[in-house]
Fold these 2 entries.
Entry 1:
Amino acid sequence: MIVTTEKLTKRYGDRAVVDGVSLSVRRGEVYGFLGPNGAGKTTTIRMLLGLVRPTAGSARVLGEPPGTPGALRRVGSLIEGPGFYPYLSGRDNLRVHAARRGVAGTHVEAVLEQVDLAGAAHEKFRRYSLGMKQRLGVAAALLGRPELLILDEPTNGLDPAGMADMRDLVRALAARGQTVLLSSHLLGEVEEVCDRVGVISRGRLVAENTVEQLRGDTVLLVRADPIEKAHVLIEGSSVHGDVLHVRQTDAGSLVRTLVRADVDVREVRPLRRTLEEVFFEMTGAA
Ligand SMILES: Nc1ncnc2c1ncn2[C@@H]1O[C@H](COP(=O)(O)OP(=O)(O)OP(=O)(O)O)[C@@H](O)[C@H]1O
């Protein structure tokens, strides 16, 4: 485990902003920390980085308490905008960051390549699009080859093209074996790039699982004629307009049953709940 938390809690006054969160991030995975605005994602991440002290509970990052020099050296993070100088080029900004962090300047070129900014590295930061600025932030987080990369809402404020670029970047990093913890309030994003997801709602971790498992059981959609007869024949089916939903996965035996009873089968396919439906169910955020 790269990150584990045990009943991690942060109270401001009498309000628990993060409430007994126990999560775990495995080496090599992209972990999506998903929740509506204000759910407690940033506060949790700040605790993992040692920027906020927990009221109760504990966390381990790379086997160490958060915020120790040993752990921090091995973690790269992008939370809020990193401080970049508007009149310096992207490359020079990274050189400044590298120098501050004691990372060899030669590494700057490698991270520029990784985030696909090598071609624009000579341009001044202030001329960058928001998406490029964000990618430069990821580049800065990658300096020093961190074992864990923590990105807090990396696509916030980006246009669709910028978001797609950021998703591609995260996927490319994952393909190289980089462990990534990324927070988001966007389901589609998490669904597309993450291996596992922790869902946080009002400070509580309400689910932690793979995207597949979160969606839950497969339901079969069956289009058959006459539909009422099919409904009677298939146990556990429910009628939705002109189709049946059946909570079972053995399509073969289902089709045989219907055909033997002279019911025409027009279509049988898995009907998967979107993560969005699951998410709304769990967080009541609809
Ligand atoms: N220092 C603080 N004092 C009091 N309340 C705070 C403090 N920091 C955060 N909060 C509150 O805690 C709640 C959770 O905030 P947090 O930033 O962790 O949520 P989030 O899930 O990251 O949301 P967002 O996506 O909007 O950043 C919010 O209601 C916020 O107002």
Entry 2:
Amino acid sequence: MSSEVLIRVQNLSKAYRVYSSPRERLQQFLSAGVSRLLGSPEREYGKEFHALQDISFSVGRGETVGIVGRNGSGKSTLLQIICGTLASTHGTVSTQGRVAAMLELGSGFNPEFTGRENIYLNASILGLSKAEVDARYEDILRFADIGDFVNQPLKTYSSGMVVRLAFATSIHVQPDLLVIDEALAVGDTAFQQKCLSRIRAMQESGVTILLVTHSSNALIEFCDRGIYLKKGRLVMDGDCREVVKLYADDLVEEEGGVVYSAPVRESADSVAPTSGSLDKVALEAVEGELPNVVDEQRLEKTPGEESMVMSSPSTQKVSDLDPIDFAPIMPSAMGGLKPLPSHSSQSAIHPISVGITDIYGEARVNFDFRDVFEIRCLWAVSELLPDPCFGIQLLSVDGISLWSTTTLNMDMHSRLLEPGVHEVVWRLRANMCGGRYVFALGAGRVIDGEYKRYSRIDYAGHIDILPQRGQGAGWVAAEPRFALLETC
Ligand SMILES: Nc1ncnc2c1ncn2[C@@H]1O[C@H](COP(=O)(O)OP(=O)(O)OP(=O)(O)O)[C@@H](O)[C@H]1O
């Protein structure tokens, strides 16, 4: 990336006047008329609302910057001002070179014009001559792949077709800056993939890209830098992972969850073990203790109860053993769990504290791919609880549920839980791609063969899995192998 600044935003603010009723709006309108007639000062009705407040940042040539923030945080407003389709209230924006923008659906397109007319219109607004558009026209059509619709008015298009045309036009005008406002989310999967690979090619050829996204993965995968807008203010501009972390924590908090991060022990986390090292230590720990392993692995030990025991083949050599099965599940170091607030109405089973730990019960956040880790919770049971059931859910930081299960699904039920405090441990393997993952927990009862939730912890903690080179993108780490075979 060169040091040339392509976008400079300085102390940018955008204010709207918002009215509580149509009447108030009318009063404002009349007051403006009266003040114009009489030359008197205009009386202000309504309230001022700041969609953006005092935003400053710059983007260098060749950089890809992602903007994240909740709905209404000002992302589209910012892009519109940068692209010149909206005026700011205060501050300045300067851009260098040709700016191609994919703002809201069809922005810059006229619904009455045909696709063809819109291509020419749009490209000419961006400074291309007719001859230049002629030379690119076939390529644009090929990329958009909308067939004969190109000769129909845009108002007859589906939203996906508008995106196809808009994207095809934007990338063929050789922009210096490409501005994309979530538009790709509308296209079909195959088209999205085509666009993403074209965006990557444009990144490589030095095009500057400003991208609004709701996907933390997209931010981390595509962007050099992240900007986080919150209620119209820029709260972070920097490393994508830092931005994702802050955004994820805020999301949980704002959606009513109580955010507890498992206490991070700097020494343990700053020297995160390399892949497999934890497993090795775990195996050393269990060597010589094999006869006790099965007993140790019960989540709760009640004489005579056989549920909640992890399967443990007993004929393997120690060197073959996998810590997910063979390392004993130990009680947490109590400092490793974070206390949860008590609520005024408490159900028969409610959480006291929760945390994510390594297999020694030590709080930890960073794990390598395939490391084994544990999500622990102390549950207070206030009455004899027949058929208790525990649930777990793995979520992306965007709140997408990636996996969930319950002890009922795992056929671990029909077990009486005594009043008291019980530590429940879910041991998992980090079979996920690099990135952040959030966990939710639940506890309840099995009633008529169904899991009835008594308590839920929306945010029980998160882990960061360190990315592995060549692993690929996404959530599921499928551990691919590849062969290219000769055929005769
Ligand atoms: N013309 C307007 N009058 C009053 N308020 C407006 C106007 N346009 C936008 N806003 C408000 O400005 C704020 C920022 O809107 P903006 O569309 O930029 O948010 P956003 O982050 O892009 O949201 P989303 O993720 O939903 O697209 C919102 O609260 C919105 O309601």
